[in-house]
Prior knowledge:
Helix content is 34%, strand content 26%. By secondary structure, the protein is an alpha/beta fold. The strands form 2 sheets. Strands 3, 4, 5, 6, 11, 12, 13, 14 and 15 form a 9-stranded mixed sheet that branches. It is globular and about 65 Å long.
Amino acid sequence: MAAAIQPTEHVASYYAATANEQTDYPILRGSVSADICIVGAGFTGVATALNLAERGYSVAVVEANRVGWGASGRNGGQLIAGGLGESKFAARYGDGIADMLWEMHWRGNDIICDRVKKHAIDCDLKFGYIEVALRQRHIDDFHEQCEAFERNDFPYEYRLVPRDELPDIVGTSAYIGGLINMRNGHLHPLNLCIGEAQAAESLGVKFFEQSPVTRIEHGPRPRVVTVTGHVEAGTVVLAGNAYHALERKHLSGLTFPAGSYIIATEPLGPAVTQRINPQDLAVCDMNEVVDYYRMSADGRLLFGGRCNYSGRDPSSIRKTLMPRMIKIYPELANARIEYEWGGKIGIVVNRIPLLGRINDNVYYSQGYSGHGVNGTHIAAEIIADAIGGTLERFDLFAKINRFRVPLGQWFGNQMVALGMIYYRLRDLM
Ligand SMILES: Cc1cc2nc3c(=O)[nH]c(=O)nc-3n(C[C@H](O)[C@H](O)[C@H](O)COP(=O)(O)OP(=O)(O)OC[C@H]3O[C@@H](n4cnc5c(N)ncnc54)[C@H](O)[C@@H]3O)c2cc1C
């Protein structure tokens, strides 16, 4: 049995301070019955619930804290296609599934754009993203991406940016090249999550908050149990990602929690914004341990990065991230930092999200390795398809051999940390 989590409110992030609504769904009490019960109301849980409700299932979502409380309501808001380990799938399954992988790569963007439009979700969605290079091998990667765009008749605007143009686009000469892609972009993730939950609720999904699930009782109709109640359902979906400790027998040693952190400056005003990001692009460097940043709707720089793979949070987030930010934008040395926060991402050693099921009726989807705004929405569709009987994409994931670290989470985190030191050294070379 997992130790009971104490429910808490949102962390003091820029997103929580600018949420469209404070959700206040009831605590789960007594007995509830549904076709499907989902544990966790981040993007994985909420997007799966919405998908299943659209197909006519009755769905209950049980959340330990609040809708979007975890990584989904705290992330960088960078909407970047992929994140499914596509290149590894290609190596494993061959060219025969190349078209399916390309379609899957962009599918999350499509789902999010359609939902925002259909349900009029106010989440500051903007298109425009630039990847920036620090090494020649990053530029080589850009050329490979452009070849894939050409091969697949990519219908959206993209463009290689030479070094001398970058200061006009990202306001810094820290990089040696860039690749702009207008199908990716950025958004307010907590407002997206809350908006999708409202859409799901309008289709009959029942949400319960402040209701940590303590165990799953398996059987033909598994029970999802909290201290004050339970949901009995034909199928259960575990969507707690790096925050849940359920089903350790099956899931321990497969995903590891790592910290990622963000600072938000005061609103910088139009003159600075015009200088540092006139096209309002999401920016991400090409290192393995990435710096990612963008402007918020009210003109703050939201600057994130510096993952912590050892399981220990830094003593000061702003002291950890400020030097990185100032290296890129020295003019922000005196900008006030008004918010600082972090959250947990779920790392999988081979960087392929962990989708699978236990006893045929308890599904799980987790471990997007820091790239989950898009990935969660694709995974949600794949899980909903699988529950509906279409297993083609689900089986791709379920058949991947997984590397299980045998000695528990602490040891696993140290291994992931060691692996990341290797990548960090590569970044520096
Ligand atoms: C600081 C940060 C920056 C990031 N930046 C980006 C980015 O810019 N772009 C990108 O694509 N990805 C980014 N990510 C990753 C992305 O946010 C995640 O991959 C994604 O949100 C995972 O969604 P999820 O629903 O699976 O998990 P979460 O959003 O973490 O949700 C899990 C939910 O399950 C609940 N839960 C856990 N255990 C239980 C239980 N026992 N009972 C009931 N409920 C439970 C939790 O309370 C939580 O609400 C970032 C992550 C972080 C932390």
